[in-house]
Specification:
The protein has 310 residues and is mainly β. It is built from three helices and 19 strands.
Length: 310
């Protein structure tokens, strides 16, 4: 009997208690994902290093066991202002706080203390792969004339796979995305200058580490080093000078707005990013472009950026 790779159901649910299976269901917690990749049994193989009077390999013991999963979801707000999107719990498990103002907005910002965790179940044709205590890394990726993506990588505590009845998935909470374009993405500014943007990528930069001790095993976010990469059309330096900004090391604001309708607009804002050295020029259709790098810096802490859905 062959198992069909396409028959997948991915479910993610926020945990109430770290590492205790939150029991996600296909009806309430299914994820509309792309490019799902799973490493079900990561860890370390500890050699026994036995002294014997003959050649031969040593037996090993698996330890520090965890699972790793990567997948993408489309960046599409819920469609209703003040209603959290279906992917909100994924951001929360990546060390972001969620603040809901009913009827108005949902705001996500990075935090330092007590990040939430999630239970993840992936069914592939009747086999359940599960992980608990999962925390993740996030990359927001927008490319002109493409669907904006949220790319996730989660690590969680290993749970032995088992054969179970494949659940049904309700994906009605997942809304249709809008292409990144001149019409749908009305604002891209750095320090108030309107720039023509080809691509933009924000990596949260979470440092995910397994911490396996007697009395406690967990996946922790040990640090966060966020970064930005963007490619824009070059301008006369009298209008916008990234080289001087890199020399000045001054606080640089950045705003990216995608969407124009209520309930479908996402606004990414940074108020204190540092421009790094431009490391080259690029040519597209004989137009000079700048590949730029920036580092979102905290001001008072846990405020490098906000993602606001309105």
């Amino acid at each position: 009997m062959s198992l069909n790779w396409k028959q997948k159901v991915l479910m993610v649910k926020t945990e109430t208690t770290y590492g205790i299976d939150a029991v996600p269901t296909g009806i309430a917690n299914a994820v509309l994902a792309q490019d799902v990749q799973l490493k079900p049994m990561e860890g370390t193989d500890v050699s026994r290093d036995l002294e014997r009077p003959y050649f031969g390999a040593d037996a090993t013991i698996p330890t520090e066991l965890m699972s790793e999963i990567t997948f993408d979801v489309e960046l599409a707000p819920s469609g209703t202002a003040g209603l959290a999107p279906a992917w909100g719990n994924l951001l929360r498990a990546c060390g972001l706080a969620e603040t809901v103002s009913a009827g108005t907005s949902v705001i996500y910002n990075p935090i330092t203390s007590d990040p939430e965790s999630a239970t993840i179940h992936l069914f592939i044709d009747g086999t359940r792969y599960a992980m608990t205590g999962a925390r993740g890394e996030l990359t927001l990726d927008t490319q002109a004339q493409a669907v904006p993506k949220l790319r996730f990588m989660f690590k969680g505590l290993f749970v032995k796979p088992s054969d179970q009845v494949q659940p049904s998935a309700d994906l009605t909470a997942w809304t249709n995305p809008q292409i990144v374009s001149h019409a749908n993405t009305p604002t891209f500014q750095i320090d108030g200058a309107d720039l023509v943007m080809r691509s933009f990528k924000l990596a949260l930069g979470n440092q995910l580490e397994g911490r396996f001790l007697v009395g406690k095993e967990q996946i922790i976010i040990g640090d966060r080093q966020s970064s930005v990469e963007t490619t824009v059309e070059a301008l006369p330096l009298t209008q916008f000078d990234p080289f001087q900004r890199a020399l000045d090391q001054s606080a640089t604001a950045l705003t990216l707005v995608h969407g124009t309708e209520a309930g479908k607009t996402a606004t990414l804002e940074m108020v204190s990013a540092q421009m790094q050295r431009p490391q080259g020029l690029s040519n597209a259709q004989n137009i000079k472009e700048w590949p730029l790098r920036m580092v979102p810096l905290p001001i008072t802490g846990s405020d490098e950026f906000t993602l606001t859905l309105t």
